[in-house]
Amino acid sequence: MQSSTISQDEGNTLFPIVLSIVAAAATGVLWAYANPIQLVPGVIQWRIFAFLPPLIGILLGWRSGFICGYLGTIVWSLLAGTFIPAHSLLVDGIMVGLTGLIPGMLFDPSKLTFDRGVLIRIALVCLVVGVVMVAAVSASLAYLGIFPFWWAFGYIGLSDIVPMVIGTPLLIVPALKILKAAHPAGFKRF
After folding, report:
1. Where are the transmembrane segments (predicted)?
2. Half-sphere exposure (Cβ direction) of 148: Cα atoms closer than 13 Å
């Protein structure tokens, strides 16, 4: 399908760092205000943009994916009024950051052709990382006495895992084309 000319050895390093911070802010705002489907009104929405951390991780590098997920979670929790210091800064932020970090470590566009097999592997990695993230977040919320574990696991899993598994492989090729058109000289992944 699409191979990349983005290289670890050429181009600008500042570009992915700045773009990951912008993506983190956009992620937080989109999670707070662009989730029209309420799973648990006022508490859990279907995060149609949950694919952003893994997408950013793959496109811009694993550190960028972590920044997008971690800072996106902090921005979202502050805007949504759900910020809980121990939970948001430690468990939720780190675990959502890992949903960007791990795919970014496993899939480097400069070394891959995004054929059907790679896209299926991306979906499977998003599924596994999503299940681990949801389990940790649900355990934290249960420990804090906010939600029962399995209740949180079901609703947060539906909220986050489904968009990651569908959106990330679906959008990786078009996003790579846009990124390459916007920065044809290439850049270093961060």
Report:
1. 12-33, 39-60, 67-84, 90-107, 119-143, 149-173
2. 3
pTM of the model: 0.88
Q: How confident is the model at residue 80 (pLDDT cuts 50, 70, 90)?
A: confident
* All residues at 6 or more sequence positions from 11 whose CB lies less than 8 Å from its CB, including other chains: 183, 185, 186, 187, 188
Alpha-carbon span 62 to 112, nearest angstrom? 15
Q: Which of the following CATH numbers is that of domain 14-181: 1.10.1760, 3.40.50, 1.10.3470, 2.40.50?
A: 1.10.1760
Chain segment 127-185, per-residue pLDDT in tens: 999 999 999 999 999 999 999 999 999 999 999 999 999 999 999 999 999 988 887 77
